[in-house]
Amino acid sequence: MRVTTNSTIRTYRSSLARATVSQYNAMNLVLSDGRLFNSFAESPARATESYRLHSSYARNQTHQETNSTMISKFEAAHSSMQQISDQYKNALEQAMKAQNTPTGGALKELGETLKGVAESMVYTLNSKYGDKYVFAGADGDNAPFELDANGELLYRGFKVSEIVKANPGDPPPAGMTQDEFDRMQSMLNESVYVDIGLGFSLDEVTQQVIPSTAFDSCISGIEIMGYGEDADGNPNNMISIIYQLGEIYSKADDSGKLPTANDEQKAEQLYNKMQTTFTNVNTQWATITSRAQFLESNETRLVETGDNLTEQFTSVDKTDMADALTTFVYAQYSYNAALRVGNQVLSQSFIDYMN
Amino acid sequence: MATFGEFVIASSGMMSSQMALNITGQNISNINTAGYTRRSLDQATFILNGSGLYRSSNTVSAGAGVMMQGISQLRDPYLDIRFRNEMSSVGSTDALLGGMEQIQQVINDVNKNGITTQFKDLLNMFGKLDANNVGTKEFDTLVRNSAESLCQLLNQAASKLQGVMDNYETKYKEEVDVVDTLIQNIRKINEQIRKADISGDQSLELRDQRNLMLDELSQYMKVDITYGTEKLGTGVEIEKLTIKMVDNSTNKPGYTLIDGVNSASISIKDPDNQDFTIVVGELQDKNGNTVLDEQGQPIANGDVVDGMGYGSIESMRQILTGQGTFNPNNTDETCGIRYYMQSLDALAQKFAEAMNDLNTNDPNGNPMAGTIAGAGNLFAANDGTANITASNICISEDWRNGTVEIVTSTNKNSGSTANDNISRFQDLFNKDFTFEGAPGTIIYKGNFEGFYANMQAVLGSDMQAVSSMYDTYATSADELNNSRDGVSGVDLNEEGVNMIQYQKAFAASCRMMTALDELMDKVINGMGVVGR
Q1: Between chains, do B489 and A186 touch, taking CB under 8 Å as contact?
Q2: Which of A68, A101, A171, B414 could hold B409 in an S-S bridge, CB 3.0 to 4.6 Å?
Q3: Is the ipTM of this complex over 0.90?
């Protein structure tokens, strides 16, 4: 094969250009902290994998944020429940004192105190996290509990003692419109599902969240404190019980006697019910605690997943810095070698040696 | 041979050596002239006497010196053909790569913020809204702002793609003009070579120039070049160059671009109506008169239909018009600018439709307007049309002015912070949608982000494949160019050696002249003077 001056120069030029490009790319690899690609074209397979990992990571970060918010909300709920527990103990103490037939106007005072405790409980359960009421179920923008002028406890506008869970198709109770009844049933069955990375998905037909794939962040005040009435016509709600007990004791005369025997019987029933109902409140509190614990363990899992994803996309997106530096040193070596060879080969020809 | 014949021998040696030295000088001085083909002197022995009836059998002839028959250009036509074929592939892949690189400047979110990150941001905003902020105005605004940014990014991408389209269209028109001019210039140079041929001139420079033009033309389109003969009458034949465009579907010569001194013009069919088909016109002479074949018919040229063309012009056309799977005829496989424009439109439309549907209809498909506060379309087209595209997508005026809000719950009996509809919105970002191309074809099945990533992956894979092909073709073309240079190129070592060789030959002929002079001196001045 005949090799000419210009083909030698051309081949050298393109080889030198390749060595320069290699060195430039190796330099960029080091300067970009070992980043292996900046477009899909540079590495379609890596870029596709990277996209999936980054996408999962972005969702993981959102899940972590949501989870963290939920932890805070449940911590707030837990704290309120602690307060409720203290208030109950206070109420129980007062009620026990009342049971021990205090003399003078003490019973009346105890009655007022109990009413005050019930009112405090309402304030406690109307606590907020952020600007949303914690115990309002799915109606976080409005204070859930209210004691009206008659001492009737209301939850989201409904008299707590009249709230009743109906079976599908049941007619509304007397004095309640269908719309009100529907709203009440909706309230008793509501959930507020949030996506905290449990495989969040919706039922294709109903388009409702599949419960096992999400976290129900709904905290219903009446589920905790109770609602409706028992067969004796006594309220199931702790606040109502305490308030009604307070009201009965408030009716006592200065000698500590209640107006009627029925009041005494009612007081006895309510006192007993107060204690049994607190068991339910305690159970609900435990549920809140366990949900908070679940959120905490989920946070650990999410953080681990996030770290894992970071590790994965880093290994896909970037090369090890030692590798990047080795590549650069090798590219530099090739470039220098190309320069040296060029200088020696290109300058000489037969003409240089002619006399 | 006569007495002084030997001087002619020496003289011819001197002349031919000098001419060979001249050619060496010409070769050296043109070593860097583009398209220059190295030359060599054709020499032959000169014999004056021949055989004859009365020729003495005892006559011995040494010859009459050296004769210069002509100057040759050293070229290998086969290497030319191979090189030009390879160059059409280089031109084709180079143009495809160039177009795709421009598209990539718009459709690339790797390691930067863009449409992909904005989808993530919007989902994140829904997450923030969902996490204890349902019904809070500020968070609804955050979602709206994020959605607005997404619209703007889609608008920008569509606008930039349109910019790429416009620039590429201008470039395509310019390139077609360049090719047309090139064809006309080759025709003109053919005319000059023809005149030179008739007058017996070798016209080596013109041929070099023409070869350069043929090399250039081969990048634009795959051509078949043949060197035939043209009979001028009285037994005289001269060279005739014919160039045909190779029909890539059959790989055989198709439309005639140049036939000797006649040529066809090439043009774009109807660029104003986005028809970028190349049209090869009738073969015409230099005065613009249609050339007829032996049957009196015009030479059949026409449209370069799909699959027929190959080379950079065809690749540019494909980048301009390639709809990929959006092509209703399903014949166009190249994903050009239009494919990405239509993909982007499909993404914007699907996204807007899905979001609007969630904010206007409940899960049973019943309209929520009138029963649920804030229900209504979130997205609209900013040009007032019903068809939402990437270039016109915007958040609706009602959402902007607060008449419409993100519907948080589809249940009219639900509480103020019920979030069942937010869940539907969140699910939308993970939901698989079917993105269709031409009727009956599916481009992608997956979520919005995935579709955009798929667009990038399609482009990236195409670019990688074309880039690999380009490297292969370019390397092969380089090798062929070196092989061609091995035949036609000037080498300084060789020319240096030639210089010495011809210089010594010249010196030897001069010495011969001196020897002859001495010999003649003896004959003229030394003979017949014995005894004086």
Answers
A1: no
A2: B414
A3: no
